[in-house]
């Protein structure tokens, strides 16, 4: 006769998930999980997870002032380049990368371009006899800029007849500060005209290049409240222009185009999407 007094607890002990091997496996899994949790926490601490900060505006500050601000924000500064711009103070921060408002982590390196204490001298080339486009390229290669376009009667349209600096003729070979503007006297055979290109939504420097390429002068520059420095002007965008763009030649060579500038991101996006 079969024994009916078998210990009911023995069946429980034989259940597979209570086997000694499974118990050891559970322990190992718990250890691995614990290691992963600790590693994740440490990784977040080391990489400062979710501790990004907004980059302050260093433009227009001296290096000492910029360094004090950087120390407060736990950022590192490094001067990587210099320019010379006569309209802003010597030794002041002109440009930074990453830009103001960018989100970075603590101890991020911020690259600065400062305005040189001493102006760089370059040699004035001769662009007489060049076309406007050739003259513009030659001046740019010497770190000089095209200033006003002055049109006079001549048989060759857009041929450079004279080069001037601050209202006076400047000879080739003369030493001059880099970044200076050179006014060009250009020929106009008569009856020539140009159209007004659309420069709305473009950065000021790009807009200026396009207007010069189309034989036009920059007129009045109008700024909104977001533009507070010369550095802001160079990085600003055109949000309005006068006259309005045209699709046909109806303006005389050398006509002026007034620009309205802003660095307000919302305004810039609005005009770009129109």
What features would you describe in this structure?
There is one protein chain. The termini are far apart. The chain is elongated. The strands form 6 sheets. The chain has a 4-stranded mixed sheet. It has a 3-stranded mixed sheet with strand order 2-5-3, with helices on one face. It has helices at 9-13, 20-46, 63-72, 132-141, 204-213, 230-235, 265-272; strands spanning 53-54, 76-83, 93-97, 103-104, 109-115, 121-123, 145-153, 160-165, 168-169, 175-177, 181-188, 193-194, 217-223, 237-242, 251-252, 256-262. It is of the alpha+beta class and 274 residues long. It contains 7 helices and 16 strands.
Could you write a compact summary of the structure shown?
With 274 residues, the protein is α+β, with helices and mostly antiparallel strands.
Radius of gyration in whole Å, from Cα?
34 Å
Number of helical elements? 7
Overall mean pLDDT score? 87
For the largest beta sheet, what order do the strands appear in spatially?
7-11-8-9
- Helix fraction by DSSP (H/I, runs of at least 4): 25-40%
What is the CATH architecture assignment of the largest domain? 2-Layer Sandwich
Order of helices and strands: HHEHEEEEEHEEEEEEHEHEEEH
Strand fraction: 25-35%
Keywords, please?
single chain; 274 residues; alpha+beta; Trypsin Inhibitor V, Chain A; 4 domains; three-stranded mixed β-sheet; 7 helices; 16 strands; elongated
């Amino acid at each position: 006769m079969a024994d009916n007094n078998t210990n009911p607890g023995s069946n429980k002990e034989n259940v597979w998930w209570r086997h000694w091997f499974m118990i050891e496996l559970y322990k190992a899994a718990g250890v691995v999980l614990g290691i992963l949790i600790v590693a994740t926490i440490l990784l977040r601490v080391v990489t400062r997870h979710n501790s990004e900060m907004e980059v302050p505006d260093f433009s227009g500050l001296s290096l000492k002032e910029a360094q004090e601000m950087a120390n407060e924000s736990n950022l590192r500064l490094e001067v990587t380049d210099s320019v010379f711009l006569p309209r802003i103070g010597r030794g002041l921060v002109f440009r930074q990368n990453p830009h103001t408002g960018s989100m970075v982590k603590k101890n991020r390196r911020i690259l600065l371009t400062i305005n040189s204490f001493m102006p760089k001298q370059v040699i004035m080339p001769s662009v007489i006899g060049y076309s406007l486009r050739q003259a513009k390229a030659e001046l740019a290669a010497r770190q000089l800029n095209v200033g006003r376009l002055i049109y006079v009667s001549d048989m060759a349209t857009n041929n450079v007849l004279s080069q001037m600096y601050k209202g006076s003729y400047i000879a080739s070979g003369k030493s001059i500060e880099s970044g200076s503007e050179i006014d060009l006297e250009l020929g106009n055979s008569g009856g020539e005209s140009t159209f007004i290109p659309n420069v709305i939504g473009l950065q000021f420097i790009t807009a200026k290049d396009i207007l010069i390429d189309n034989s036009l002068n920059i007129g009045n520059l109008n700024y909104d409240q977001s533009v507070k420095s010369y550095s802001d002007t160079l990085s600003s965008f055109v949000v309005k222009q006068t006259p309005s763009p045209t699709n046909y030649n109806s303006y005389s060579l050398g006509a002026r185009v007034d620009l309205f500038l802003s660095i307000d991101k919302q305004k810039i996006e609005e005009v770009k999407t129109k």
